[in-house]
Amino acid sequence: MLGRGLIAAAAFACALFTGAAAQAQQTLEAIKARGQLICGIHTGVAGFALPDSRGTWQGMDVDLCRGLAVAIFNDPARVRFVPLSSSTRFTALGSGEVDVLFRTSTQTMLRDTTLGLRHAVTYFYDGHGFMVRANAGISKASEMAGATICLIQGTTNEQVTADYFRSIRQGFQPVLFERTDQAVAALVAGRCDAFGTDASQLAGARSSLPNPKEWTILPERFSKEPHGAYVRRDDPQWFDLVRWYTYALIEAEEQGVTKANAEEMRRTSQNPNTRRLLGVTPELGESLKLDRSWAYNVIRAVGNYGEIYDRTMGPDTPVGLERGPNEIWTRGGLLYALPLR
């Protein structure tokens, strides 16, 4: 009797686990049934996500969301953007309010192990910095002892700033805000001596000010901030799709496949890697349960990684950021696509 009871209990537990696993494997199916990807983005920072004069969202994270919609539907318009603050973004993802976060979110150990979420792959390397008035006479962070510093609540930048001033045995006064635009407004109004956040966001915020030359981003970097898409931990299939979608954009740049030449390369290239990437052979799409042309469609719609970067925050944009560590590995950067084969 005891043996039969244990067997029955084990079978019941197995059935519960199998049912939960089956239920978890539904993100892609739910998106297809809904007919729309729901993408969590920043509430507003130039370069990553900011509405233009017509109210249309623009930026790297926005384009990554549109590209993912193309991978699924072959239609960049089939995405709904949900602006999320730093303090609510992970809760919104965990509760199912959004399908994925493309929202300047740093991978850290505790986020990876305690939130029930997964960081798919790093697509932007950044570091914490400070922005001050150009005429403030400040050339390095150690000269800001006792300063009032604007910070965004719920970010790694809170801890990084506190850790830095603790390390030099100096005090500072934090002023916390929910959104970047609130912190920037407080900085301009003189409520803060400096604004501390990721250097790319400082550049984006500065580009939106009436006179960007009045502001200086100090050259020091105080942390590693690898940004990547986040998804829920309970759906490995969706994690794989978001992960390899991101790699495909980097791989396209490595192979020299662009928005302009993708069609010709698909037709003429004899490189097996290029033929796989562009769907001449079907195995990559089949492995992700997507159309064989998914990556080709994405590149044709939004370009490769470098094209997205240059269009949204590169040297010829108001944000004006050089590639630096966000260059591909063959040109001295950190971006590296795992083999798509």
Task: Give the secondary structure arrangement, pairings included.
Elements (H helix, E strand, L loop, with lengths): L1 H23 L2 H8 L2 E6 L7 E2 L5 E2 L1 H14 L5 E6 L4 H6 L5 E2 L7 H6 L2 E10 L1 E6 L14 E5 L3 H12 L5 E5 L2 H9 L5 E5 H9 L7 E3 L7 E8 L3 H20 L6 H7 L3 H6 L5 H6 L5 H9 L2 H8 L29
Parallel strand pairs: 1-4, 1-5, 8-9, 8-10
Antiparallel strand pairs: 2-3, 6-12, 7-10, 7-11
InterPro entries: Bact_solute-bind_prot3, Solute-binding_3/MltF_N
GO biological process, one term: amino acid transport
Organism: Roseicella aerolata
Report what the structure shows.
Helix content is 42%, strand content 18%. The protein is built from 14 helices and twelve strands. Helix 3 packs antiparallel against helix 13 (294-302). The N and C termini lie far apart (52 Å). Residues 1-24 have low confidence and may be disordered.
Total E-strand runs: 12
Helical stretch tally: 14
Q: Between the first and last Cα atoms, what is the distance in angstroms?
A: 52 Å
Order of helices and strands: HHEEEHEHEHEEEHEHEHEEHHHHHH
Fraction in beta strands: 15-25%
Overall mean pLDDT stands at 92
Structural class: alpha/beta
Query: Radius of gyration, rounded?
Result: 22 Å
What sort of overall outline do the alpha carbons produce when their principal axes are compared? globular
Biggest sheet, strands in spatial order? 9-8-10-7-11
- Major pleated sheet: 5 strands, mixed
Poorly predicted runs: 1-24
- What is the helical fraction, as a range of percent? 40-55%
